[in-house]
Design brief:
Four copies of one chain form a homotetramer. With 474 residues, chain A is of the alpha/beta class. Chain A is built from twelve helices and 19 strands. The complex binds zinc ion (ZN) (8 copies). Chains A, B, C, D: Belongs to the metallo-dependent hydrolases superfamily. Hydantoinase/dihydropyrimidinase family.
């Protein structure tokens, strides 16, 4: 009689701490045992020569998120989570975004409707607060935090999202009091507006000018300000999608003063540069995201901060807009000015392969650090640990069996998102996910998603330990 | 028939990454399985309500180390390792110290003789190079690194140990080429000498003046210089026993520039202050170590750097000299001037309890971070991972069953070292090791060491991954 | 026949560069000669044992400035300039402040009306832009700059003054293009509002809470942001009334990156501390100004930055409100909450004596640095050099004959402003102005102002050299 | 009857503070008057359209300094001071260098013998201490300081000069106690030795490898260490010949902490780069000096620090060795390895023209800052102010009448030193000294030195105010 539902045998397991050879046994969708020569499983998977990793946790992606400019998210919860799963990710945390005037609870309800019956892997929601009324601050947000939506994103830019400093402080106070992780998009809206108008007035509308409209100091300033607000409110924050040296320096400075400032970067800042915005015709539009990719020196700075300890998580910031599409990058036609091009790059499927290949294989980070950045820390950051993000007894059996040696040239046709391009077209990587399990169930096999839409479950997040203010009195 | 030699049941296991409830099974001295409801063990240990942690790895302690001033190490490998084990430590890495003129191999041979038949837990050796001849640099040291002595300490101070910058660079070149971790004692010898002579000339001989002879900038300067040498030689280094803000700032600065500079601190910098050197009569001599404990603000800076990521390991720097002893702190009689008082404090047994109580229990660090700092990272730093330092399949079953709630007031009579005092006399801590296993064998039970001297084995260290130079070209 | 209108004989002259014994001869209101044994003057002034200094230039003071809260400036141009003159200042640069909705030219006209016929010494105007319409940016401000109003102040806080970042950038662009010096009041309005509401909600209304409503980081954040805007607009700026370490660090950091960031501090940050807000009853209201005085450590940091080169000018920021007055500090009665208490301290007369006594006499700064900070640099900063601010041939004979040894205990009854208190009551200083000349005419003699109101002339300011952007291309 | 010995009429005078039109009258070799329409002079010099500046003070040059390697200083006090004078410099401060074993007084006597009867302009001596015996520290050096040798240079590198940290501290203690300015050559000798041996072992002997043997961090480390020693000894120091960013950052950091750390740079770091060491054959030898010129980015950093306030003086560090000469750069023949090539570049005559043209004319620094850096501050730094370095009444009439518009292409044939090359060959500059007066006597006229050797006088230096420790207690 099989002792386990599933046994993954002869693999090399990795956690954020350790790498070792062992079998892994699953019972009831959870990791039940790790050991040498485990008893038989109803299903046996041979992982000889493979890595057995916790499934990736993508702590920052946008799925089926309505916009106010007429553009359309190319991925819904079905295509998005399928693409994620094929890339080795077993948990995604997209956003439930409040429109101004909308109640936050209604927004959440709407997003649940969007996700229901579609997701192939588990998901939680970050909230996005765009209209922090007294009702929201005093009741709705605390109630949602209590209900398991324990993180929210604050925008310092984008006209329909941005909050002023006072509003940010009010929200950080809620984060502190009710125990939530505040994620901050740190770019100075006024700076961007001023630069954009100058560029447009000079007739500079091509995609490449997107980078000129948001130079490094736009991000540095907002990062410093965000840190100051975290200091004032005495609460940890996470700075999302950090793109280069000057922002890193602010974060590193704050960390050196003993503050709990966490930071995220994304593959686009690890392998793209502003040069990718300079392509022929509108090609650059494919790589328009905010903050924009920087130059090679900044890219090196991001790698250094990743190999060191300044960064805590690597997310995709998957924001899927089709390229040749009037609801995508060509929103205002074939010459859409850079400031009207929807922001974002797709990358939910390529996140792990790029980080593994450029990071682990090139010797910049250890395999443990890879696991930590892409799975364990995101789970911890957002209150999903120990359920998700590690190979621990009792944790959900979200597992990726990874072929560390497979050579793949990334091309969009092999990806499973609903976007008509990938910014990483032609990038050669070593290593690719082979088999993916979600709660013990094989959802990807041989590169094909075999999961039924709707099998993915909504996850209530716990209060993240990392969101606790620093203990200063003893 | 028992499936395991030993099963530790119903405990809460912790690694540097995760905390979870599970049983742990040992076969042949190694961790064979971790899981829910493991099969029976020949020996069953109930860990209900207890933490099951990897045994501590003390990466910095001095045992039976001869001196040149007539003082005598109070602990040999028997008392020292017994004390360590009783404090939850299952691996120690003391030093094999070359005397000037002595061959390094002879030094190692001598230290093996000192350890043979005495240690109750496993041990490796760091080398101390005090006389870097061409023979040593070109042959002896590389050969010893090859033989498993893959770390060595470099002193920038102490007359009989200190190397000049040229010699340090030569040694760092060996570390780079042959793959060893260089540990650096960073204090400026000339600064200390100058200050000491001024203090003595002014008649300031009491123990408290030890602190004045080695102010923070003595350490800051040497730390900056050590970092510069690491940069020049392009090799990681570890700065040992970092005591306060200015040194931390240098390390943090270097880390922010992408350098692999590791750092260690010790309990004496976490709970003692310079005020402890001000005791009645010669009492202050009990706390004389170098660098000296600093003030409260520096102590807070050390905690911040520990909770953040600037520090990588916490060691004891156990350096045992008896207080009321003409071969100890009273080396030159009842009024021994501070500069003749042997440097060092005992602490091999109290390291884990202090870090656990002041760190985990007071909410400054997580349990995972505790494990990382005290066991996993030291093992990684010195090429002992994955054999030591974690609860991983295949690892040595070096395990401490820790009572997280036991309240203990530290007093010297309860400790097992051969020193007549502890600097932590009267300190109240919460949590204490209950049962300790080394390679699956119970060595401490109910606070008593039950292991035979000599059972501890010498460990050949691997090349530490952390000692690899940063990859810069891609 | 006299060769000079006036000769000041046997004094010790000081410039920002040199100190030397000489006579000084005036012809036609200008300095005509400096030398040994000058020929006779129609008037001869013996300065034996005295310093002969350029008259102070107070680059920041508020005179007869209407408010929107019902408070009233205690000093008009007559009492204000008389007080200034008695304190050794011969040029003041108060503000012409635009109300929202008012044209900038009308504001200037109004202020000229206020000054006409009243001033006893020369004066120029900084503009305050509170409503940067397109008309103002495109026409009015450039025209006024052209007419000699070559500096303007930007507020980042105060409800009726504050500009958003976009507006600041627009104004800095004008400063760059048309050649003006932008002065920035750097405090974050939202932070202050948030803190103030929290304090008030907790019932904390006493004067001392003013300091809690504007802690150091309120100023640090705005300083960083102001620097970022200067960087973006590529133009020098001056940060006014810098109060402590964290703001200084930002400025120092920017200067170290090669930016032209100038900085001002004031006597209140050199001798007062937040403790002065803690007085009995409402006494603290006397010292309410923004930013507030900080603690002793910050005060020391201000002195260090003054003795070093981080600061460029010392101004009074004289903002005169009577204490026992329903149009002054008691605006809302005897228990006026801190946030309704008019901001500002008087100090136009005590600026030089305090800086001289605490700075030069206590050995913190040289006499040349005193002259530079209090006279020469303000004149340069605002386009009044070489007419004002130095003892140079051809310069206006604005001269103070200073008794360096006179001991004075400051008390309000000896001062000439129209305020009923001085925050420096009881402060003992060494050195006091004895005789003051404006354009060669004695305006203060024996501590008495002998000048007719209206003799002071309006000064058109030149484009300040210091406002030029850094040359980067060669 | 003439009122003045000499009147310089109709010029534009400049001090470190001011620029103004005036006449200048000289009596008895001193500046007696500055004013409009001065009375007649026995000699009248028309300076219409010209600048009238204080003669340059070259605070760092080497004249007739014996070496230990067989090389020979190309310039003695006659050719050296003549070249200086022709370049607008009226005071030089070369070194009196102690050989190990020699008494410092004997060294001084020897140098006086070398200077006697030769100098055409005034001179003082810095001491160089290479052998700080107790006799020297306790008696000889204090006595010489008392006699007017109030500055000394400390070498942290060069085998025959370098002192260890202890010796440096002893010397800084003397500087503090007896009131002298300590100048520090900050390069780490051990680092250089290690790098040099590696380069030579690899066969890299060409001049260009000089730069590789002394990279930026060699200087950065020593700068940090020097600052630490100044902090420990609590005394100001001057870091000489600072070459680039990393050293500047250390200095700027120290200044930001309130320390009195002064800094000097030289024209070679303002216009040369390491590329100039890459010339054909041995051409690079012409530009070998220590520290070596850096890259363009470092050059820009030096300019920024010059335009800001980090640097205090610009000196020539004139160290004259002939190029095609077996006692010069070709010391060991036509392929002299870089480490045997005498260090130093000539530049005593080109210092002011390069700084004026590249600095003032290109808009990087003001004319006042030029005067401050090249004349006033060096005089203040070394106790020669107010006698030298400014246009002040009573000061020595050391004056240069400077044609600000003359265009000159620098070529060695036009220079007056005894070196067979200039590193600035072909450099086009605008502005050149026309007439130079020393103590009222014309010493250069129309580009020709008309002074008799021996007319230059030895200057006893006062205790420099700038060498006083910071006042901290009040
Ligand atoms: Zn975002
Ligand atoms: Zn996003
Ligand atoms: Zn040590
Ligand atoms: Zn030690
Ligand atoms: Zn203000
Ligand atoms: Zn003001
Ligand atoms: Zn030198
Ligand atoms: Zn030199």
């Amino acid at each position: 009689m099989p002792q386990f539902d599933t046994v993954i045998r002869h693999g090399t397991l990795a956690t954020a701490s350790d790498v070792f050879a062992a079998d892994l046994g699953v019972i009831g969708g959870r990791i039940a045992a790790i050991g040498i020569g485990l008893g038989p499983g109803a299903r046996e998977i041979d992982a000889t020569g493979k890595l057995v990793l916790p499934g990736g946790v993508d702590g920052h992606c946008h799925l089926d998120q309505p916009t106010s400019d007429g553009s359309q998210s190319a991925d819904d919860f079905e295509t998005g989570t399928r693409s994620a799963a094929c890339g080795g990710t077993t948990t995604v945390i997209p956003f439930a975004c409040q429109f101004k005037g909308q109640s936050l609870r209604d927004a959440v309800t709407d997003y649940h409707r969007r996700a229901d019956g579609k997701a192939v892997i588990d998901y939680a929601f970050h909230l996005i607060v765009s209209d922090p009324t007294d009702q929201l601050l005093g009741h709705d947000l605390p109630a949602l935090i209590h209900d398991g939506y324990t993180s929210f994103k604050i925008y310092m830019t984008y006209d329909d999202m941005k909050l002023n400093d006072r509003q940010v402080l009010e929200l950080l106070s809620v984060a502190r009091r009710d125990g939530a992780m505040a994620m901050i998009h740190a770019e100075n809206a006024d700076f961007i507006g001023w630069l954009t108008d100058k560029l447009l007035a000079a007739g500079h509308t091509a995609p490449r000018y997107h980078a000129d409209s948001r130079p490094m100091l736009v991000e540095r300033e907002a990062t410093h300000r965000a840190i100051a607000m975290a200091e004032l409110a005495d609460v940890p924050i996470l700075i999302v999608h950090v793109s280069g040296r000057e922002a890193i320096e602010q974060i590193h400075w704050a960390q050196g003063r003993g503050m709990r400032i966490y930071a995220e970067t994304c593959p686009q800042y690890l392998v793209l540069t502003e040069h990718d915005l300079h392509g022929h015709g509108m090609e650059g539009a494919k790589c328009i995201c905010s903050p924009p990719p920087r130059d090679k020196a900044n890219q090196a700075a991001v790698w250094d901060a990743l190999a060191g300890g300044t960064f805590h998580i690597v997310s995709s910031d998957h924001a899927p807009f089709r390229y040749q599409d009037p609801k995508g990058k060509m929103l205002h036609g074939a010459n859409t000015p850079f400031n009207w091009i929807p922001n974002g790059v797709p990358g939910i499927e390529t996140r792990l392969p790029i980080l593994f290949s450029e990071g682990v294989k090139k010797g910049r980070i250890s395999l443990q650090r890879f696991v930590e950045l892409s799975a364990t820390n995101p789970a911890k950051m957002y209150g999903l640990h120990p359920r998700k993000g590690s190979l621990a007894i009792g944790a959900d059996a979200d597992i990726v069996i990874y072929d560390p040696d497979r050579k793949v040239t990334i091309t969009n046709s092999m990806l499973h998102h609903n976007v008509d391009y990938t910014p990483y077209e032609g990038l050669e990587v070593t290593g690719w996910p082979e088999t993916v399990l979600s709660r013990g169930e094989v959802v990807v096999e041989g590169g094909t998603c075999v999961a039924q839409p709707g099998r993915g479950a909504f996850l209530r997040c716990d209060t993240p330990d990392l969101a606790r203010p620093k203990v200063t009195a003893v």
